[in-house]
Amino acid sequence: MVLNTQKISQHTVSVIGSGSWATAMVKMLADNKLEKEIFWWVRKEEDIEYINRYRHNPTYLSAVEVKLEENHVLSDARQAIRSTDIVILNTPAAYLKLALQGVEKPDLEGKIIVSAIKGIIPDENLIVGEYLNQTYDVPLDHIVVIGGPCHAEEVSQEKLSYLTFASKDLDKAQIVADLLSNRYINANISDDVLGVEYGAVLKNIYALAGGICHGLGYGDNFQAVLVSNAIREMEFFVQEIDPADREINASVYLGDLLVTAYSQFSRNRTFGNMIGKGYTVQSAQLEMNMVAEGYYASDCIQSIIHKNELEMPICNMVYQVLYNHQPATFEVSKLAKKLT
């Protein structure tokens, strides 16, 4: 059955994922004043028991109170999805397929599917919207993509933040924006789905680059040049992939890049900083105990760069360091000569 967004007065929403961003999104939904019913898929049974008993996620953003009705925290993703008309996917991109195991095409039929994921599905090398369309036959105009700049940690502290909701169907983007807006979340609407998705992927790679350079001892002067080159490289890439009339200095592109490149909460910058200081990829991953989307994205984006014969020196530097195990000092030194 096709969802008729004009006739639904109360939405049912499921959040698929249990990390920091998913926890923050449950909080955003609960703090919104519109009438709705919220279901939350959490992977670990012990976490579900803890949440039901103490109303907090024991692993991520543990200070956030979980304001859900009884029995609305579920271990079965398919059950959570089938109970709702709006599905918010909020796992690391590399783990999305695992989260959706057992979910079938009819389970997503007619629903608004929202991607709050800022990464690429590794094996298929697809952004999330394309993956949903090709794997589950979700129509592109039923997909809404959420872009930043917005760190979960600041949302948990109710610091004023801005999100962009992008869809080919602006009415659906508005529905999702209305459900997630509240006194500390402001919403923008966009039809630039590919630009928002690819921009979110690229800014993680550029934050990794900034972290690598910081770990090597490069200062703020160099970081400013790196980021100003990064936004131009991002614009070049998205225009090559999807030519459109977009304003690259908008908050969803430049703003998200800035906060990810500079914020203390940026796991991609933190990961890159550790690499710059001499950590191996494996040791950095173990110490962080969190997913840095830019690591997986670097490999995927490099394939697209190669396929389209694009010149992307910052992305190339990150790839050479992370995947070809080239010395960071050498690769950043080469990069520095190309920056302007």
UniProtKB/TrEMBL annotation:
Start and end residues of each Glycerol-3-phosphate dehydrogenase NAD-dependent N-terminal domain: 13-171
UniProt xrefs under PANTHER family: GLYCEROL-3-PHOSPHATE DEHYDROGENASE, GLYCEROL-3-PHOSPHATE DEHYDROGENASE [NAD(+)] 2, CHLOROPLASTIC
Family to which the UniProt record says this protein belongs: Belongs to the NAD-dependent glycerol-3-phosphate dehydrogenase family.
EC number, UniProt record: 1.1.1.94
Catalytic activity: sn-glycerol 3-phosphate + NADP(+) = dihydroxyacetone phosphate + NADPH + H(+)
Annotated Glycerol-3-phosphate dehydrogenase NAD-dependent C-terminal domain residues: 192-328
Broadest EC class assigned to this enzyme: oxidoreductase
Protein name: Glycerol-3-phosphate dehydrogenase
Keyword tags: Lipid biosynthesis, Lipid metabolism, NAD, Oxidoreductase, Phospholipid biosynthesis, Phospholipid metabolism
Keyword NAD attributed: yes
Residues at which substrate binds: K118, R267, N268
Organism, scientific name: Sphingobacterium olei
Domain of life, source organism: Bacteria
Single GO molecular function: NAD binding
GO BP term, example: phospholipid biosynthetic process
Any one cellular-component term (Gene Ontology): cytosol
Active site: K203 (proton acceptor)
Chain sites annotated for binding NAD(+): A152, R267
